[in-house]
């Protein structure tokens, strides 16, 4: 569920970026329209929420690295016996 929420926030960030670009092109030179700034505020809010979700996921252990070449931390005294 957490990974799904992260993907949704990433898609929302991309959509907000696109709408900000659209408003920037449409509202050129008009000082009364602040849609570009509102889009920026939405994008910053979404980025903060996304960062919070990622930090929560890593802290709770729901998100982590699962690289096949990385066996994780090695307990003290059990170093690898590889020789060159």
Helix content: 55-70%
- The separation of the N and C termini measures 45 Å
Q: Can you summarize the main beta sheet?
A: none
Oligomer: single chain
Mean of all residue-level pLDDT scores? 82
| SSE topology string | HH
Organism: Candidatus Marimicrobium litorale
Keywords: Membrane, Transmembrane, Transmembrane helix
Protein name: DUF2909 domain-containing protein
Pfam family, one: DUF2909
Task: Write up what this structure looks like.
Helix 1 (2-26) runs antiparallel to helix 2 (35-60). This protein starts with a helix and ends in a 24-residue tail after the last helix. The longest helix has 26 residues, at 35-60. With 84 residues, the chain is mostly helical. The chain has a domain at 2-23 and 34-60. The chain has helices at residues 2-26, 35-60. 4% of the residues are buried.
Secondary-structure blueprint of this entry?
Elements: H1 2-26, H2 35-60
In short:
The chain is an all-alpha fold and 84 residues long. The chain is 61% helix and 0% strand.
Label this structure with key terms.
84 residues; rod-shaped; 0% strand; mainly alpha
